[in-house]
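To: structure subgroup
Subject: Chain for Friday's discussion

All,

I'm putting the inputs and outputs inline so they're searchable in the archive.
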Amino acid sequence: MKTVRPSSAFLTRIQQQTIPSAYRAAPASRVHSKPQTRPFSNLFTPSTQSLTATRTLPYSSSTIYAVISDIASYSSFIPYCHSSTVTKHSSPDKDGNVWPEEAALVVGWENISEKFTSRVYCVPGKIVEAVSGQTQTTLRGDDIAHHSPSSSPASSSEESNSPILTHLLTRWTLRQFPYKPGPISADAHPLDAESPLPPRDQTDVNLAIEYQFANPVYAAMSAAVAPKVAGLMIEAFEKRVRAIVEGPSAGLGGTSGRVGKSEGVLRGRGESP
């Protein structure tokens, strides 16, 4: 008996009619095998790190705020800050004061330096927040209505895009409360009872820093030194305030004299200090 073998065209037609298209083998010309490669530095993405430090300082919040908002003077007292320049100011607030809105800082150690262009937001007397890169402010629009609503300067300036950091947010928060001595005890020394300690200003100062490195190697290296940074910065500002309030006799450097109301801010155009 003669065996009849179906033609290849016939088998192909039967396959197309009986096998779902999802299970059919793709033609050889459409199958591409391409190895997947990833740069070594992108094997994992560094997580966002945060630093916080809080200190109670025996000065008024207005005095401390004047020093923190005086960004142009940072390079004269902050460690490793080589230069600090305010490149743009806000519109006048309800009191007629003009605040820093954009600033450029150069920080470095030995032969390594990095420039950061930050957008600054000031809630007068309470908060100073600076963001870099594509980071957005955390403040409410009502609190910073005197600042222009544009996004971070890094979105329009290549030089402000740091190759080291992809995220940077620095926020100073102040809360003033007066120190009031308690009642004189019955067994207190007579001289203490006659001249008790007078009330004095005190301010809680909180510094919070959030940052994310672009390179995981830098993130690993920072783990050893980063916890000390926030405390070091608050200490530098404390010394600056003390030197301004108490003068050079404090032995901490800085400028002598007292801080006025408009110190660290500019008056609006046409306004007298």
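Points worth raising on Friday:
Residues 49-179+199-254 form a domain with the Alpha-D-Glucose-1,6-Bisphosphate; Chain A, domain 4 fold (CATH 3.30.530.20).
The beta strands are 49-57, 81-89, 97-98, 100-109, 112-123, 127-133, 165-179, 200-213, 266-267.

D.
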